[in-house]
Design goal:
- This protein has 15 helices and no strands.
- It has 449 residues and is an all-alpha fold.
- It has one domain (22-444).
- Helix 1 (16-48) runs antiparallel to helix 7 (195-220) and helix 3 runs antiparallel to helix 5.
- The chain is globular and about 60 Å long.
- It starts with 15 loop residues before the first helix and ends in a 5-residue tail after the last helix.
Length: 449
């Protein structure tokens, strides 16, 4: 690799264990605080506005997850492609890819946000919003739309900054707005009495600050990857579209992972509101708020291993690729077991953050959350294995496995399992989907490197 000065991180020579940990712990902190953007919204809204407002946020939540999915698609994609370019000494190509991702993704999200504003009511109906929840859902949606653009810049930026050898600053991009969001949620919901809209405004403001941090880093502090002046000629636009397409294919399964969470919410909302009404959706929303934290913890394992695996894959260091992969699998298994234990034995205190103890939604959630948590070990292993395939450009396998867990097995499980086991089956649909996906992965996985 051409030697533009990096910090102490050397993806090609440092010992895998210390290298992985130096990226993992800052990434973990960043991911946890990033997930607090929605979790804190739920806590303050649930306590300060009520269970209907909590259910309304859960209706809008798939949009947040789709936005994060698009961001992860570009973030993972540019990280994989740029890592391989760097390992082969092609720094200019890495710079071009980084700049294209940061320019094109927010532009596409701006177009989508404007379109959603003009079709906001039909969109809410599509997400399964009832007449009772529609005003609250719209109140939360509209201030969130600009935030979706900033979420893309924040998420893509953290991948690039981590690749640049600054995992601590990448962590700060998640931690600083996450902490600020706690204060702003309290300020807007309670003292200022802005209701559900206040939590949405807080999220948008915090994401804007995170985007500013990314921009400042890329202009002032980047060491290895830099912004590159893009040309607007026909040839340059063609090359940009080609590169964006390839990055999208590399990161597509990551987007599917977020879409899987939105599918869980969307399908679950339909099932719960049909069977248990608004109280059922409010109860299910607690699982939907906690699930992204578990996802982010396990995604931090994948994202920490990815630049190590991709760099050494591009450099032809097969032994280092396998060592990093095995370490990610062990770490994922531990994280999955801990998440299951916390949400099983700590269900009641966790639920009480969102819902009033003794209420009907609270009672429904205390019964169902431990069942839902049984999915987390299989989920963690699935995400780690899929991340490995992404990192070595086996995008077809990664996409197929993600589709299995997020659609092919998930939707039938939500339809069929409640008929076999009622009412617990509604909570067991996700564990069944993750378990079946893991079985398929074990049956089809080969040592391909």
């Amino acid at each position: 690799m051409k030697d533009r000065e990096r910090d102490s991180i050397d993806f090609g020579k440092s010992k895998i264990g210390p290298l992985f940990r130096s990226i993992f712990f800052p990434t973990l902190l960043s991911m946890v605080f990033t997930s607090l953007l929605t979790v804190v919204d739920g806590i303050f809204v649930g306590q300060g506005v009520g269970s209907d407002a909590l259910a309304a946020i859960n209706i809008v939540a798939p949009l947040f997850l789709v936005t994060t999915g698009i961001a992860l698609m570009f973030g993972v994609g540019v990280s994989v492609v740029a890592s391989i370019h760097l390992s082969q000494g092609n720094n200019k190509a890495a710079d071009i890819n980084v700049t294209q991702a940061l320019a094109v993704a927010p532009m596409l999200m701006t177009i989508l946000a404007v379109m959603l504003y003009f079709v906001r009511i039909p969109f809410m109906r599509l997400l399964g919003c009832s007449d009772a929840l529609l005003p609250l859902a719209l109140e939360y949606l509209i201030p969130l739309l600009p935030g979706c653009i900033f979420i893309l810049i924040q998420t893509i930026g953290t991948f690039i900054i981590r690749l640049d050898g600054a995992p601590k600053f990448a962590s700060a991009v998640g931690i600083v707005p996450g902490v600020l969001n706690i204060f702003l949620d309290w300020l807007f919901v309670f003292p200022m009495q802005m209701g559900i809209a206040g939590s949405s405004v807080a999220t948008t403001l915090c994401c804007a600050i995170a985007s500013g941090m990314v921009g400042w880093y890329m202009v002032q502090r980047s060491k290895t990857v830099h912004l590159y002046r893009l040309k607007l000629s026909r040839t340059s636009l063609f090359l940009t579209s080609r590169n964006i397409g390839y990055m999208s294919r590399c990161g597509f399964s990551s987007m599917l992972g977020e879409l899987a969470m939105s599918m869980i919410m969307l399908t679950g909302n339909y099932v719960f509101i049909r069977s248990l009404g608004e109280d059922g959706v409010a109860a299910f929303s607690v699982a939907c708020y906690l699930y992204p934290i578990v996802f982010m913890v396990n995604n931090s394992v994948t994202q920490s291993a990815q630049p190590i695996i991709s760099f050494n894959y591009g450099a032809g260091h097969g032994n280092r690729v396998q060592e990093a992969y095995r370490l990610s699998i062990r770490t994922a298994a531990v994280c999955g077991l801990l998440a299951t234990a916390v949400l099983t034995f700590g269900a009641k205190p966790l639920i009480s953050f969102f819902l009033q103890a003794g209420s009907n939604p609270y009672e429904i959630a205390t019964t169902g959350l431990p069942l839902f948590a049984s999915s987390f070990v299989f989920f963690a292993l699935n995400i780690a294995i899929i991340g490995y395939y992404q990192a070595i450009e086996q995008n077809g396998k990664a996409t197929v496995y993600m589709l299995l867990r997020g659609l092919v097995f998930l939707v039938p499980a939500f339809v069929l399992v409640p008929k076999l086991i009622s009412p617990q089956g509604m909570w067991l649909a996700v564990p069944v989907s993750e378990c079946l996906t893991f079985v398929v992965i074990l049956m089809t996985k080969k040592n391909i490197y």
